[in-house]
Write a structure and sequence with these properties.
Elements: H1 2-30, E1 47-65, E2 75-76, E3 82-97, E4 100-120, E5 126-147, E6 150-170, E7 174-195, E8 198-208, E9 212-214, E10 228-244
Antiparallel strand pairs: 1-2, 1-3, 1-10, 3-4, 4-5, 5-6, 6-7, 7-8, 8-10, 9-10
InterPro entries: OMP-like, OMP/PagP_B-barrel
Family: Belongs to the Omp25/RopB family.
Signal peptide: 1-26
Amino acid sequence: MNSRICKIAKLAVLGAAVGFAGPSLAADVVEPYVAPVAAPVVYDWTGVYIGIHGGYGWAETDGVFDSGGVPGGPYNIGDFDTNGGILGAHAGFNWQWNNIVFGIEGDVSGGWLDDTLQGASPGANTVNITSEVDLLASVRGRLGFAADNVLFYGTLGAGYADYEFTSVFDPLVGVGSVSDDDWGLAFGGGVEYAWGNWLFRLEGIHYDVEPGFTFAGGEVPDADAGDTVFVDGVTTVRLGVSYKF
């Protein structure tokens, strides 16, 4: 009798042990393994960069030349289409805080923005006058919003332009040129795309500058006293590529 009771007790203890262990084993088997998820990599815009750019520019001009009207004038300087290509280099530094990017940049561009007006007198003297913007430069701050490797930015700073005016009085007098430069505001904006260390951009910059001249008479062929020739701002659109260190 005692032997039978002992067997029954042993079976009860074994059954209880299996009962307690079963749910735990089942839970271990059923629960799926979830692998850790890596944090997404976000592009870091912080760093120094240098690059080149090229594009197209146009200058607004104003004034009157050869107001005496002999031999080919008067010329309305606003009739100039002073436009053409630009090519230059730039360098700068960006610093990123969350999605906000602060920066400073300097650039210089050679310009081929020019146009020529022509007139002639009955004596076969030909007058050609040429308007040309041949150099642009700026130092600007930049402020932008970064969406990973795409940066949208605005820019504001100081801009510089060099302007040259040439008069050709052929054949009696010859050629004369004068030049002037001016500093003013430079502002604009653009978008930049990062691919590794390479940065590709499209931007527009306006130089709010006014280089030009008021003639006393005789500085260049056919200049009359009181004649004025000046630029009233230069606008550029350009593509660029930079390398970030």
